[in-house]
């Protein structure tokens, strides 16, 4: 049996003291391949102030000479194996169980690998996460037991990608284009000329998406 992954709780960057999490909306940041918990953390300046932001560190070290961390391997015979994405997503769920108690809601914002893991985590537990932002990522092929529950709940997902992104294989983009509308309430945009990266225009769209999610969460709470 493959050993379970465990996220390093000491490597998480928090925008507020964890003691201030109770009753507040938590947004998890999941970086891409070869980055670490510091990579997406500066994005909090572009996000609504209402969130407590926690930037997680992926559990694996990619093969030398790649820097940083990775959520799952992309090289070798088992590169992009869906089971590895699921294993990483399960580690995120276990981290949430251990460290996000008391949060009014938990959302996900992932880039590239982090985007794929974010969607996979929602598929594992459709009730756990309020929404997800998938930047330059994709939906992992294959079926999971929780897909039917996800399609019934249809949480909000923002998917942003660039026309000049040459990192994510075309077949994964095509799969995601078909899969997402069947399982979630999809919004997003394809950004002309954008490579495998994030632009300020995209971040403005993300902020608008997150503000809408906050409004709906508050409305549900008040109702």
Automatic annotation (TrEMBL):
InterPro entries named among the record's database cross-references: AB_hydrolase_fold, LYPA1-2/EST-like, PLipase/COase/thioEstase
One GO MF term attached to the UniProt entry: hydrolase activity
Pfam families referenced in this protein's UniProt entry, alphabetically: Abhydrolase_2
Domain Phospholipase/carboxylesterase/thioesterase intervals: 24-212
Keywords: Hydrolase
Family: Belongs to the AB hydrolase superfamily. AB hydrolase 2 family.
Full protein name: Alpha/beta hydrolase-fold protein
């Amino acid at each position: 049996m493959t050993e379970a992954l465990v996220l390093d709780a000491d490597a998480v960057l928090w925008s507020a003291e964890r003691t201030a999490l109770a009753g507040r909306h938590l947004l998890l940041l999941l970086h891409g391949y070869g980055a670490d918990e510091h990579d997406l953390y500066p994005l909090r300046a572009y996000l609504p102030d209402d969130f407590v932001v926690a930037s997680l560190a992926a559990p694996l070290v990619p093969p030398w000479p790649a820097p940083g961390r990775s959520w799952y391997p992309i090289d070798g015979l088992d590169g992009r194996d869906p089971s590895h994405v699921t294993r990483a997503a399960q580690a995120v769920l276990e981290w949430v169980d251990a460290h996000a108690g008391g949060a009014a809601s938990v959302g996900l914002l992932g880039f590239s690998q982090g985007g794929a893991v974010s969607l996979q985590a929602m598929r594992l537990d459709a009730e756990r996460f309020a929404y997800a932002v998938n930047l330059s990522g994709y939906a992992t092929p294959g079926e999971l037991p929780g897909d039917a529950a996800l399609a019934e709940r249809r949480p909000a997902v923002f998917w942003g990608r660039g026309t000049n992104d040459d990192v994510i294989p075309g077949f994964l983009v095509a799969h995601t284009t078909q899969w997402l509308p069947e399982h979630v309430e999809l919004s997003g945009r394809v950004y002309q000329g954008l490579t495998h990266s994030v632009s300020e225009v995209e971040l403005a769209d993300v902020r608008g998406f997150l503000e809408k999610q906050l409004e709906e969460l508050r409305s549900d709470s008040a109702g």
